[in-house]
Amino acid sequence: MVRFMRRWLVPLLAGLLLIGIAIAFVPFSRQMETRAKTELTLLMDRAFARISAGDKLTDPMITAQEESLLSKATAVSRFLTHDDTLLASDALAALCEQLSIDRIDVANAEGVLVASSDATRIGMVLGTQAGLTWTMAAVTDATAALTQQDNTDPSVLYACVGRSDIDGLILLTRDDAHVENALMLSDSESITSDLPYGGDILFSAAESGADGFFYEANNLCLRRTQDGVTMIAARPTAEVFAVRNAAILAFGAALACIMICGVAAYLLNLEPITVDNDEELTQDTAEQEKVALLQEEPKTEEPEEIQPKARRRLFQKRKQLIEEEQEQIEAEEVDQQHEQSVENAPRQISRGRKKTQVAENEETQEDTEGVFEKIVE
C-alpha cells in the first residue's frame, strides 16, 4: 500500500486537478459568453438610439432645404413662361447665381433636355439616366412638384416641376452645404464616436452578411442592420473569457497547493522502517562497539532527552562490558603467573611478583569501580 501511494499519489491528484478544470471549463465559458453577448447587445441598442435621434434632427433640415429648392423651381417655371430668352445657357447660368442653384435643366415632353445652364448636358434624355427616371412624372403634369435626394450623395437635392406653358419639366439641382453638415453630424460613426463602450469595438459596415453573433479574427462580433445602417460591435475573446481564465487559474493554483501540502504531510507522517540485525552482527563489529563504549569518557551529566529506562539500560550494558573486560584481564594475569612459576623462578620472587600483580589488579579494579560509580551518580 505504501509503495502504491508513493507511486500513484501525485498522478492521482494531478488527474483530479485536470478533471476539475475540465468540468469547470464549459460552464464558465458559457456564462462569460452569455454575459459578453448581453453587453454587446446593450451597446448596439445605445448606438442605434443615438443614430435615430440624429436622423430626427437631420430630417427637418433636409425637408426645409427641399421646400426652398422647390419654390425656386416654381419661380424659374414662371420666368420661362414670360420670357423664352432665358432658355439660353448663359441666361440660365446667371439665374443660377441669383438663386444660389448649382444647375437648371429644361426638358421637353420626351424628357430630352432642350436647355441647361450646363451646355454639355443639352440633348440628354432624363428617362435613361439612373436616378432621374422619377422626373418623367412631371412631363405631362403642370402641377407636379417632386423632390429627391441623390442616391450616391445625400447632400445633393433635386426639385422637379412641370412647365405651365408647354409640356415639359424643369429640374433644379443643388449641393446644399447645410444638409451636408447636418448629415456629417448625424453620421453613424460621428454619433457613436464618443459613446462609452470600454474596450469594445463599434464601427459601420457594408450591408452584407446575416445579422447576429459570430466569431471572427479572435473577436466575438454582433452585426445589426437598422434603417439602412449596418453596425458591428466586437469584443476580443481574451476579454470575453478573462474572468473564466482567471478563475480556472486560481482554481488550479489552489489545487496544486493542496496537492503539494498533502504529499508533504503524507511523507512527513511516514515512520522509518528499520531491520533489527543485532543477531547477525559479526564478532569484529561487536568488539568495535565494546572498545568504543570503553573508550568513551564518562559524563557526569546526562542529556535531558535520555529517558530513565534508556539510561538504566545503557549503564547496565557498560557495567557488563567492564566486568567482562576485567575477567579477561584477570585470566590473562593468572596464565602469565602460571607460566612464570613453571620457569623455575624463585618462589619468593614469584610470590612477590604475584603480590605486586594482585595489588595492581586490585588498584585497577578499584579505579574501574570508582569510574563506574561516578557514571552511575
How would you characterize this protein structure?
- This protein has about 375 residues and is an alpha+beta fold.
- The chain has a domain at about 285-375.
- The chain is about 55% helix and about 15% strand.
- It has nine helices and nine strands.
- It has helices at about 1-80, 90-100, 175-185, 190, 235-240, 240-270, 285-295, 310-340, 345-375; strands spanning about 105, 115, 145-150, 155-160, 170-175, 200-205, 210-215, 220-225, 230-235.
- The strands form two sheets. A five-stranded antiparallel beta sheet has the order 2-1-5-4-3. A four-stranded antiparallel beta sheet has the order 6-9-8-7.
- It is rod-shaped, with a radius of gyration of 58 Å.
- The protein starts with a helix and ends with a helix.
- About 15% of the residues are buried.
Topology (elements, then pairings):
Layout: H1 2-82, H2 89-99, E1 103-107, E2 113-116, E3 145-149, E4 156-162, E5 169-175, H3 177-185, H4 188-192, E6 201-205, E7 212-215, E8 219-226, E9 229-236, H5 237-240, H6 242-268, H7 283-295, H8 308-342, H9 347-376
Antiparallel strand pairs: 1-2, 1-5, 3-4, 4-5, 6-9, 7-8, 8-9
List key phrases describing it.
alpha+beta; 377 residues; four-stranded antiparallel beta sheet; rod-shaped; five-stranded antiparallel beta sheet
Please state the structural category.
Answer: alpha+beta
**What's the shape?**
rod-shaped
Quaternary structure of the protein: single chain
User: Reading side by side through the largest sheet, how are the strands ordered?
Assistant: 2-1-5-4-3
What average pLDDT do the residues reach?
75
The description of the largest β-sheet is: 5 strands, antiparallel
Can you count the beta strands?
9
Q: What is the count of DSSP helices, taking H or I runs of 4+ residues?
A: 9
Low-confidence spans: 274-281, 299-306, 348-353
The secondary-structure element order is HHEEEEEHHEEEEHHHHH
Q: Supply Rg.
A: 58 Å
Fraction of helical residues: 55-70%
- End-to-end Cα distance, whole Å, is 49 Å
Share in β-strands: 5-15%
